[in-house]
PDDEXK nuclease domain-containing protein
Amino acid sequence: MGKPMKNITTDFEQIILLITEARNRVYSKANAELVMLYFNVGQIVSEKVANGKWGDGTVNDLVNYIADKQPFLKGFNRRGLYRMKQFYEVYSDKEIVSTLMTQFQDADNELNKFVTTVLTQIPWSSHLHILNKTKTIEEKLFYIHNSIKEKLSVRELERQLNSATFERTMLGSKFNLAMTKQLPKGIFKDPYVFEFLALPEIHSENDLQQALIKNLQNFILEMGKGFTYMGSEYRLQVGNKDYYTDLLFYHRDLQCMVLFELKIEEFQPEFLGKLNFYLEALDRDVKRPHENPSIGVLLCKGKDVEVVEYALARNLSPALIADYETKLIDKKLLVEKLHQLSEIFYKNEE
């Protein structure tokens, strides 16, 4: 008598898992070798050009030489070689290496270790997107760190770059730091961008809620890794009445519940009272002893910074008042807004 079909299927799945894990290791090793190759080639080209030994003509000759010796090799055209040169020059700066190695909690600042332990952790195509779409080294370090920490695919990284995640995260961090000391740094954004919802400019709160639920995967990608969906219209019973929250999540790293309340109008101070009421109910009746206090996020269609500052001045619960947009925001406007906010808070600290 043979094995039950269920047991056989389990055995088959185990073999599939082994195949998948081996393939991933092979891909990871191949990618690491490729990134190292491009970095080393970039170093040679950079140093030869910097010393005046090579010019554009020599680089063209190199392209032709490689094509002759390795006719099936891709990526070693003129544009590719200059990308490798740029790759080396950007990430060989000692200050940058020191900053990134500290960021990844490694005391060894040697260039070779930096390349092998950091740069090789993401694919070359991700590096190309970062080189093409960022200007400052702070942006580059942010997206490299995000790619490694959140295990971003190339498509997910591209969306973060296109939706100016760096500027929005920095903007949210600066604003939150000034408004409240209770929110963790770098987790939440302001504003959030929901271009994937295809909502009209005029929509109801229910329209927004249902669209986010239908596009839950994209919503979680916009929020960042670590969020687990707990449900919509989450019921809270206080006294003899039932209350229903909008969208409730759990964040694994923060070890707390995160409540998103949706408003299709500009922030009003009274919104905060209701949010605090929900957070108190969650902490008293739903939160487990080992978990941290719940965090509330009010997603509003705009806000007056001064009104928010007054509203949060005596607020005891960890809360964020964030804008949401249904279309991609012009990155220049976000950069300008970040610069203006930095100036305001810098003056306040003087």
The first helix runs from residue 5 to 50. Residues 30 and 123 are 10 Å apart (CA to CA).
